[in-house]
Design goal:
Layout: H1 5-19, H2 28-35, H3 39-51, E1 56-58, E2 64-66, H4 76-84, H5 108-124, H6 127-145
Antiparallel strand pairs: 1-2
């Protein structure tokens, strides 16, 4: 199982937006550079994030995309689900009657437990926390590349 590139780019964009000062707007082009994503592909990702209410889109000369202060606490699960839809590791987990083998399948409980664990991990990580971690890692990398402080 692998998340799509769209979900990965969505997470990157949200982390980047969370690293900016509250109220800062940035263009789609700037977000594409920050997320290392083709700008046209990023349009769909941004539409999904905006539709989910995670990002605010502003039109006009002073337009751009902004992360509302409240959404700095958005979980990675929320971002992934805004792009991918509900998290489902297997068809049998989509509803109680999605698979006729569900009641007696020995693997069903494994899929359900794995999905629950994955969802819990993605729910526990927020874009704000990851933005702070990114800033710390960037500082550490800069210090490692310039140990004399020059």
């Amino acid at each position: 199982m692998q998340l799509t590139r769209a979900a990965d780019y969505g997470v990157r964009v949200m982390i980047h937006l969370a690293s900016l000062a509250p109220g800062t707007r940035t263009s789609r082009a700037e977000l594409a550079v920050a997320a290392e994503c083709p700008e046209q592909f990023l349009s769909k990702v941004l539409q999904n994030l905006t539709r989910a209410g995670l990002v605010v889109s502003h039109r006009g000369n002073t337009g751009g995309f902004e992360l509302p202060r409240l959404n700095r606490g958005a979980s990675i699960l929320e971002v992934v689900e805004a792009i991918e839809g509900p998290l489902r590791l297997n068809l049998c987990l989509t509803s109680d009657h999605a698979c006729e083998r569900q009641a007696w399948c020995p693997a069903h409980l494994v899929w359900a437990e794995a999905q629950k664990a994955m969802a819990a991990i993605l729910q526990s990580a927020t874009v704000g926390e990851l933005a702070r971690r990114a800033a710390t890692l960037e500082t550490e990398r800069a210090l490692a590349n310039n140990p004399a402080g020059n």
